[in-house]
Sequence to fold (400 residues):
Amino acid sequence: MASENPDHRYLELAEKWLNGTITQEEEKEFADWYNAGQDETVFLPAAFAPGREALRERILQKIRQRRRTKTIRRHVYWRMAVAAAILLVVAGIWVWYNGRTTGVSQPLAVKPNSMNDRAPGGYKAQLTLANGSVILLDSSRNGSLTKEGNTDIKKQGGRLIYNTLAVAPEADNTLSFNTLTTPRGGQYQLVLPDGSKVWLNAVSSLRYPTAFTGSERRVQLTGEAYFEIKPIAHEGGKLPFIVEVNTSSNAGTSGIEVEVLGTEFNINAYNDENMIRTTLLQGSVKIRKDGKTGLLRPGQQAGVAAHGDIKIFNDADLEAVVAWKNGYFKFDNTNIADIMRQATRWYDMEVEYNKGIMDENFSGTLPRSEYLSSLLKILELTKTVKFTIQGRKVMVEPYR
Fold:
């Protein structure tokens, strides 16, 4: 279809794609234009805000890089890449692919596509104090919340900050513990009394002392968290930081300990995953299970399943591992069941497979600020899977 202003035509097609009114003929025209123009400057809205040019270049760079990579599911990736890139650029969504951000990205979400759509998660969590009382953080005001011993507890946006007013042991030589818990569709950042930072993903909890004393720092995790541990000098060395991962996953794994001195790493220990995975970004960590140990170097991942040894995997996809912390989904040849497990935690929903779980893998990237329908629409563009949203339930079936 010809037009005196091609750019206007393709923006019109992009808007039709976003609101679900595009025809098959128009979809092919739009996809042909976009694929043919990857090595050229693509059309951007006139009101393109400062800084988004860099975003467009980053998207194009990623797509060009994928062009040079031959994969079994290449055709599936391309349809998702086209859809995700157009969604990001035309809708004006802000997302920064920076694994070194200081907080969880919370860009503005687009409008839902239907009344049945599911909104993305956000800063939601509850804090359980040592005396058992609970503070709902998503409905609490910023500022000082309470004090536990010598520690002041303050809320600042999506962060909970512990500030030790004076270093002193408990009078009865016991520690007071707090627990930070996120629900489905929730995430939160925590600054521990020693200055270490923890990002807590949805459906997760961290139990920790209100002040660190003694010869080690020890916390307990369920779910998933990203840690930036502050190194602290201690007796000629550094004070150890130990994460106990006490969970009963599908694999029945429990009793995992991750010991660090000062480093950055991610632990995924959800109950519905087949193993506990610890991925190291900086420094070094030691994994312990049943008297056995494994040492990780940056870029490596340790996997521990029930009745199994510690397995070390080289060249972990660090970007995909920490994508949740930086505000987006990243799938790289990821099975549909794995994708939907991530979606159920973030969108607080349930999944039902009408004809069993399909053996289909997908690749692509999308901000976690999007409504559920945006993720499902991009997956549907592969012509391999179809979704129906019914309240809190998403029905999954082969595309036909």
About this structure: The chain is about 20% helix and 35% strand. Residues 122-319 form a domain with the Jelly Rolls fold (CATH 2.60.120.1440). The chain has two domains: 6-117+330-398, 122-319. The two ends are 28 Å apart (CA to CA).
